[in-house]
Automatic annotation (TrEMBL):
Broad EC category: transferase
Enzyme Commission number(s): 2.7.7.65
One GO molecular-function entry: diguanylate cyclase activity
Annotated catalysed reactions: 2 GTP = 3',3'-c-di-GMP + 2 diphosphate
Transmembrane segment boundaries: none
GO biological process: cell adhesion involved in single-species biofilm formation; negative regulation of bacterial-type flagellum-dependent cell motility
InterPro entries xrefs: Diguanylate_Cyclase, GGDEF_dom, Nucleotide_cyclase, Rev_trsase/Diguanyl_cyclase
A GO cellular-component term linked to this record: plasma membrane
SMART domains tied to this protein: GGDEF (SM00267)
Domain GGDEF: 186-306
Pfam family for this entry, one: GGDEF
Protein name: diguanylate cyclase
Length: 306
């Protein structure tokens, strides 16, 4: 036992990371898997951790990389992170028998809390080493979260919260690639929606009321779109919906559902809001321009027919 105690003191004095070593200390050796592990200095472990965590700007991937790197040293099984804005989990569903909750410190402030679950109990030495390595997660995770937030802002309409035109164009390209790869029979549809005489709202009631009307209409679209349809604010009072499912009657059914929801929305009824909807289905050889043009022409025909 004296030999084990000397080993732990040596680890503390030289700031070493022990990778689940059978020869590190007898108490841990009894609790850890009967397989070979190696020793690694804490400096090298921290450098490896930083290198692995800097390879991605996805918060979820950062957490996965962190767990993979920690598994080189400790019997970790579940990891989760939370702060006032975000909750991230990377859990296998197998609960650990020992857990640690560690505060991630950023510039002397608490950025969030990391919950770690382990398959075996850790010694005090290894607890300290876990805490040391865990602090390497703070900056990469904070950086990845900030990047995703900025990316989300670039793809989201700030007024309505709907995906914006950039998101629409990206989604169209993804749908086109997906359905082209599945064969000619696979199609999707595009709806274009305009608020009728929207300029009257801005002129008569002001732009704040106009913004309220746009937000209410966006809420209507969200409530009408299910898992097979996604709504976008294209610009101004023009909105689009991509219906990524087959069925010639789906665009018509969705259009009817939207018109009914608009007619039943008290905020929109108050200002006499109606909408015109034109739609078209994807055909082999279509581009975004050609599909959009057909749907837009259908919209114009509906308006002219009123």
């Amino acid at each position: 036992m004296k030999e084990n105690s000397d080993m732990e003191n040596s680890l503390l004095c030289h700031d070493r990371v022990v990778s689940l070593s059978r020869c590190a200390d007898k108490n841990d050796a009894d609790l850890l898997p009967n397989t070979g592990y190696r020793k690694e200095s804490s400096e090298a472990a921290c450098l490896n951790m930083m290198r692995c965590l800097s390879t991605t700007l996805s918060p979820e991937s950062v957490l996965v990389q962190f767990e993979l790197e920690m598994k080189r040293h400790f019997p970790i099984c579940n990891v989760s992170f939370r702060n006032s804005k975000h909750i991230l989990t990377n859990q296998r569903g197998v609960p650990g028998i020992f857990s640690m909750e560690i505060e991630l410190i950023d510039d002397e402030h608490i950025y969030g809390c990391l919950m770690l679950e382990f398959e075996w109990v850790l010694s005090p030495v290894k607890k300290r080493l876990v805490n040391q390595l865990t602090q390497m997660l703070t900056f990469p995770l904070k950086n990845a979260v900030a990047f995703q937030e900025m990316k989300q802002l670039a793809l989201t309409d700030s007024l309505t919260g709907l995906p914006n035109r950039n998101s629409f164009e990206n989604a169209f390209q993804q749908l086109m690639a997906r359905y082209q790869s599945k064969g000619i029979g696979k199609r999707f549809s595009l709806l274009i929606l305009d608020l009728d005489d929207f300029k009257r709202i801005n002129d008569k009631h002001g732009h704040q009321t106009g913004d309220l009307v746009l937000s209410c209409f966006a809420d209507v679209l969200r409530s009408c779109c299910n898992k097979t349809a996604e709504a976008f604010r294209f610009g101004g009072d023009e909105f689009t919906v991509l219906v990524h499912a087959e069925g010639e009657d789906l665009p018509h059914l969705l259009s009817s559902r939207i018109r009914l929801a608009v007619a039943n929305n008290s905020s929109l009824v108050q200002y006499g809001i109606n909408c015109s909807i034109g739609y078209s289905s994807y055909q082999p050889g279509d581009s975004l321009y050609s599909l959009f043009e057909r749907a837009d022409n259908a919209l114009l025909q509906i308006r002219e027919g009123r």
